[in-house]
Amino acid sequence: MTVFADYRALTKADFIASSIGGFGFWSAHKIRLTRRALKRLFWLGFGGAKYFDLHVATSRDEAERAAVAVTICYYSSFGRKLSEKKQFLFADTMADLDVQRVWLRSERRAVFAQVAITRLGADPCIGLEGRLKLSAQGELKLHPRDVATSRDRAALEHTLTLAVEDNDRTYGRALLARLIYLWQGEVHVRDLQVLADADLLVAHGMRLDHAKKRDGLRGSGTFLYEGFCNGFLPDRVPLSKWLRLEIALLNAAVLAAKVETIEIGLGSHSEVRAVAASIVAKQLGLRLQVSEGSSRLGLGWLSASELKALRA
Amino acid sequence: MHGIRQHGLARSFYEECLDASAALEALGYGLDTGWLLGVYPFGTRNPYLRALYSAALEQGFACLPLKGLEQLNNVPKPLNVALHLHWIHRIYHGLETAKQAAVAGADFLELIQQQKDMGRPILWTIHNIMSHRSAFPEEEIALRARFAVLADHIHIMNPGTVDLCAPHYEVPVDKTFSVPHPSYKGVYGDYISKPQARLSLGIGCADKVFLLFGELGTYKGTRQFLAAVDALQTSVGGGAKVIVAGKAGEPAFMEDIFQLTAGRADVQLHLGHIDDQDVQTFFRAADVAVCAHPSGLNSGVAAMAATFGRPAVMPHALTPTIAGPEGSVYGFDSDNMDTCVAACAAAYSAEQSASTEQGLFEWAEAHAPRKVSADFFSSLRARL
Questions:
Q1: Fold held by A4-137
Q2: ipTM score
């Protein structure tokens, strides 16, 4: 097993190389990090995103969150700074060292990227091992069931996208739990709320606390419900919250039109419109006409059949 | 007090004593009746101390926070001086070994003895049976036992303090006087409505909200409570939301918290210092405040919850601290989280009654800081 004594202290030569963006150019390193950044300039080349792998170790008995910061600055071919991203790495105990992948995005116009690695804590107990050499993005090597326990953020997020496409809430919840545990990101917390909302919708249906059935409002003619009254359906909004407003708006529109039928037109999200329209039709005692050519697509965490089951 | 000092009025401690003497005299307390009360340790961000001392001057006591006990060696001679100690375990701060702790304890008690020898009464407020994160439990028990002997007067807030401390160290009954924990009425902003608070936190009107408030630590039972959220959901018929708000604790402990909450959409974490103006948001949004800590004597969070009209769930040993309003506190067996879950469900049902809120507001009014402070100092004066 590696021991912390194997990690060497940084030398003046390391910092000279770092000052011209050349640290770690020739070979792999096993060093003790300082709070002074170690810099390395990369030419990003062609193709998609690239990455390099590192091991970060602590000499302490417990792993440490955000022990190391990796700051990545992207530059154009003329040396103009385009953007800056920061990524925090865990320091593992010597007994549980695990690889951590740092991703460099394929950013538009970015030709160079400068990576600066620095220790965040005051204690000089953090070591780094790895070669600062970029590898190109390839096929995911991890088996899907291993992704949910990995620390590769790109793999986790990619697999999460696949889980959404498959309406696989169980696996999605596991992936989100892992992402939230590791990085506490607000976006993933939000995604989990959306997923939980989908679970509740499937379990209990669409609940409207203050809705009352209204009789005697029937007119004549048909209201063609072709697009959302609400404008659009954004990402990362719990569907029940969005539907509540859509139903209220549709209700008002249908009342103003004085019709006896709501017809759901073809087009995008027709399954979601069918949910809203069915609830409004039931509230107002109107007829509902669903076009047979409607989409059979699901939405986010909900499959088409689950959406259909939400209809009143 | 210290806050003013930090904002640029850098007086010497001697000058502060002179100013205190003049302030007492202006209120009719001469050298024979006015008292300087040296307070140690003083937490500048702790509203409890400011609340407890809020009526001090009117009662003839000028409270001066001490950076160290040696400051009392530099007090103008003719003034009456008493010493009020709070969290005495702070003397261990920064120490690494039990041996160092034992030496620090002996030195501290020697300093206290010197103050006693100068004729200065020693007052101790017992906040806890033991400090929350006791690094040197044996040394701390010994320190507390010896300090209880040295102290002339002991202020307790929980009527059961003597019995609860008895398994660890003896608290002489004849030295104790009981003045309850103050409410936080007037301490924090309190002007927003429940729906507004819930909107701010993204919580629905129909959610059943349980709040765990304050700095996170292993001693607070947060882990155990979060592990029981599924049982809580069952107990309240679903729709429960748990809010955890407060400064993050030790990294290893926070790892456990993150593990427990990462996959849960029904738990919200708000980690970091909660601004005084935001305290109302959390308590107003909540239905029930949960003080899940398995041991303790008092709960500032329960007093805070009562101030905002919210019932609290706490161990049975702590329930006498909010005695009075019906449906206000719900006790549980501290070694049985199932009873905590049941208490949460009962407290939630009670919260739905307007009389519960009214009863708690009345308790908070009756225990407003200045009233409790006046009671505290009149009790103290009677004993000096």
A1: Jelly Rolls (2.60.120)
A2: 0.76
